[in-house]
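Hi L.,

As promised, Endonuclease III:
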Amino acid sequence: MGTPLEPREAQVDEVLERLYEEYPDSTISLNYSNRLELLIAVILSAQCTDERVNKVCADLFETYETPEEYANAPQEEMAEAIDSITYYNNKASYIRSACADIAEKHDGEVPDTMSDLTDLAGVGRKTANVVLQHGHDIVEGIVVDTHVQRLTRRLAITEEESPKRIEEDLLDIVPEEDWQQFTHLMIDHGRATCTAINPDCTDCVLADLCPSTKPDADVDLASGEEW
């Protein structure tokens, strides 16, 4: 079982240093060519793999281009276009509604503020953070997805449980210049090694820092349950 560094800032710094070395090309894995495509891809990515989203969006982005085209597409048509995505009916409705607001309230441009973005259907703080960071080069928060949520708890970086509270906690201890890359590094490590069900602790560059390391640790701090 690993031992996290104290204070938590030291743990974060060491985790970042090792993951930067392990994943030097870490970046967003969604495919897009403009802000609208980014927004739609991120809406679709909720509880769905980026690989699946990229496959669906390859056709979707050829069919629709402007916010008006998405907004005016019939619900059944949009749902059918994304029907291999989780919760496709709801997401089709979100996309149509969000694009209607973009066309009518924002002159056809994807908003560049957290408040305007989160007013759009299907857009929470996580989605808005991604769009701000990668669409507008505005970094004012940390994207907390399932990988970030899992790894930060396993590594004893936070004890918070909800994405909102985790983000608030991380903003105090992660250097501001690392806010964007922190998420990408956590995602890459979560996919490659620190998976949800059966993490590969024997081949983990963070094992000596992780109090959740199998088989020595009795409990997975991410879930609070026994391994």
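Residues 88-105 form the longest helix (18 residues).

Thanks again for sending the construct details.

K.
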